[in-house]
């Protein structure tokens, strides 16, 4: 399996560090987030990794070259001319993924999730489902935003818990009884199937969440819950300090 690390973002939550650096090079106990996630993938035999770049792209490219990819073969998806967001970045990298499925993760996420279990769950969920798109890693943690699934485990919507804004894969889902909605916090890690590219109609700049909600109208998108493990969004300065106590 190949993987993609999304490292093109502006990292506005991590200012002032990101005024002069890409967030993927923020250090936790002397190792950058990028290095840590490349080494994390190596634990599960994933050694071919595509990294998309935009914000201070040259610094990421230089770090990869100076460290020989930290033992992995690293490919660069250069979005220097325009940041494409998560979905647009995955679409831009279409030619890189020739296998039936691949893993995509955010650069500013640190976790000890067992990727073998995610892969196994994806195989079970997609077995016999012709229009299966992706398996999203989620937890039950408190979050400002939630993905919404039905009791069958299929994605049907998204909710901003701060503003109460909601987006639905189908407007009919807006009438779904609240007690039958399963709300989960997205971990920024997913396995995406080849059917994603075949079904996608969005182009240019867009988020993966918007893509999933569009595709979920006629396709199945499931989840894998890893609430029993560690997950930390290291996109905020205070979480860099917290990460240093959790990830040695």
What does this structure look like?
This protein is an alpha/beta fold. The two termini are 26 Å apart. Helix 3 packs across helix 6. The chain is globular, with a radius of gyration of 17 Å. It has 2 domains: 109 residues, Alpha-Beta Complex (Spore Coat Polysaccharide Biosynthesis Protein SpsA, Chain A); 117 residues, no CATH class.
Low-confidence stretches: none
How many helix segments? 7
**Element-by-element helix/strand order:** EEEHEHEHEEHEEEEEHHEEH
Radius of gyration of CA atoms, rounded to a whole number: 17 Å
Topology:
Elements: E1 3-6, E2 27-28, E3 31-32, H1 33-42, E4 48-53, H2 57-66, E5 73-78, H3 85-92, E6 101-106, E7 109-111, H4 115-126, E8 132-139, E9 145-149, E10 155-160, E11 166-168, E12 182-193, H5 195-199, H6 208-215, E13 220-225, E14 231-233, H7 237-246
Parallel strand pairs: 1-4, 1-6, 4-5, 8-13
Antiparallel strand pairs: 2-3, 6-12, 7-14, 8-12, 9-10, 9-12, 10-11
Characteristic terms for this protein:
alpha/beta, 248 residues, globular, 14 strands, Spore Coat Polysaccharide Biosynthesis Protein SpsA, Chain A
Concise account of the structure shown:
This protein is of the alpha/beta class and 248 residues long. 25% of the residues lie in helices and 29% in strands. It folds into two domains: 109 residues, Spore Coat Polysaccharide Biosynthesis Protein SpsA, Chain A; 117 residues, no CATH class.
């Amino acid at each position: 399996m190949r993987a993609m690390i999304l490292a093109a973002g502006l990292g506005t939550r991590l200012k002032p560090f990101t005024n002069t650096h890409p967030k993927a090079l923020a250090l936790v106990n002397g190792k950058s987030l990028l290095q840590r996630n490349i080494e994390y993938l190596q634990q599960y035999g994933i050694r071919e990794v595509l990294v998309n770049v935009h914000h201070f792209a040259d610094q990421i490219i230089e770090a990869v070259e100076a460290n020989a990819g930290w033992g992995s073969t690293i490919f660069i998806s250069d979005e220097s001319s325009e940041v494409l967001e998560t979905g647009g970045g995955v679409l831009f990298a279409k030619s890189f993924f020739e296998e039936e499925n691949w893993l995509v993760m955010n650069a500013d996420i640190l976790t000890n999730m067992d990727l073998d279990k995610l892969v196994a769950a994806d195989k079970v969920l997609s077995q016999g489902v012709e229009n299966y798109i992706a398996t999203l890693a989620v937890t039950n943690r408190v979050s400002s935003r939630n993905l919404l699934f039905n009791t069958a485990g299929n994605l049907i919507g998204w909710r901003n818990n701060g503003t109460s804004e909601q987006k639905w894969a189908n407007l009919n889902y807006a009438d779904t009884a609240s007690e039958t909605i399963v709300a989960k916090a997205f971990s920024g890690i997913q396995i995406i199937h080849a059917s994603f590219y075949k079904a996608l109609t969005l182009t240019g700049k867009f988020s993966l969440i918007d893509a999933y909600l569009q595709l979920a109208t006629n396709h199945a998108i499931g989840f894998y819950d890893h609430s029993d493990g560690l997950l930390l969004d290291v996109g905020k300065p205070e979480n860099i300090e917290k990460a240093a106590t959790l990830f040695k």
